[in-house]
Write a structure and sequence with these properties.
Helix 6 packs across helix 7. This protein has a four-stranded parallel β-sheet. The protein is of the alpha/beta class. The radius of gyration is 21 Å and the shape is globular. The N and C termini lie far apart (55 Å). It is 41% helix and 10% strand. Strand 3, helix 5 and strand 4 form a beta-alpha-beta unit. It contains eight helices and six strands. The structure holds zinc ion.
Length: 201
C-alpha cells in the first residue's frame, strides 16, 4: 500500500507511510467504502456528451440541473478546473471542457480540442455570455484568443437574429496575501488592467 500511495503525484515515501498508517486506524466499513470507490473509478465513469466532463452518467448532474443558469457558459481546459470553479461556489452556469489548450509543440491543434462541439453549442443553446476560463499561461492566452476569434466568426456567418454574445475572460490579478513588491510585472499589469471600483460602504 505504501508503494502504491508513493506512486501518486506529490506524495513521497514519508507521506505514503503516514497515509497507510492513517488508513490502518480507520474502521472496516470506511476502508471498504474507500476501496470500493477506487475500484469503481474506471468502470462507472462516462464522458458527458454535452460538456465532456467526467461523470457517472451522461448528461452529467451539472448539465441536467434546471437550477443552473442556461445563459452562461464557462469554457475550461479539463475536469480539475471544473472542480476548482465549483469549489468557489461563485459560478452557477454551465461548462464546456475543451480537453486542453493549443500546443503546436505537443501536436495539439484545434482538431484535438472540442472546438467544433463548442461552436455547435454556442449556436444552438443561446448563451448570452461565454467565459473563457483558460489558464493564464502562454498557451492558455493564445488558445483563448483563437477560440474567441473562431466563435465570433461562427456567429457572424449565422445571421438569423441571434442575440449578441459576450465573450469574456477571467480577471488576472494578485493572489490573496500577495505582496505588491514581489509581484512580477505581467501580474501587476494584469491586476491594474482588471481593477474594479472600490466599494464605498
Ligand atoms: Zn455535462
Amino acid at each position: 500500500l505504501i508503494e502504491s500511495l508513493a506512486s501518486l503525484p506529490g506524495i513521497g515515501p514519508k507521506s505514503a507511510s503516514r497515509l497507510a498508517f492513517h488508513l490502518l486506524k480507520q474502521d472496516a466499513n470506511g476502508l471498504t467504502e474507500f476501496g470500493r470507490r477506487i475500484s469503481e473509478l474506471r468502470t462507472n465513469l462516462v464522458t458527458c456528451a454535452t460538456c465532456h466532463n467526467i461523470a457517472s452518467e451522461s448528461p452529467c448532474v451539472i448539465c441536467r440541473d434546471p437550477g443552473r443558469d442556461k445563459s452562461l457558459l464557462c469554457v475550461v481546459e479539463d475536469a480539475l478546473d471544473v472542480v476548482a470553479l465549483e469549489r468557489s461556489g461563485q459560478f452557477r452556469g454551465r461548462y464546456h471542457l475543451q480537453g486542453g489548450v493549443l500546443s503546436p509543440l505537443e501536436g495539439i491543434g484545434p482538431e484535438q480540442l472540442k472546438l467544433r462541439e463548442l461552436e455547435e453549442r454556442v449556436s444552438k443553446e443561446g448563451f448570452k455570455e461565454v467565459i473563457l476560463a483558460l489558464n493564464p499561461t502562454v498557451e492558455g492566452e493564445a488558445t483563448a484568443h483563437f477560440v474567441s476569434k473562431r466563435l465570433q466568426q461562427a456567429l457572424s456567418t449565422q445571421k438569423n437574429g441571434v442575440s449578441p454574445l459576450k465573450i469574456t475572460r477571467l480577471a488576472h490579478g494578485l493572489p490573496t496575501g500577495a505582496d505588491l513588491e514581489y509581484a512580477d510585472e505581467t501580474t501587476l499589469a494584469h491586476a491594474l488592467e482588471g481593477r474594479t471600483v472600490s466599494s464605498t460602504q
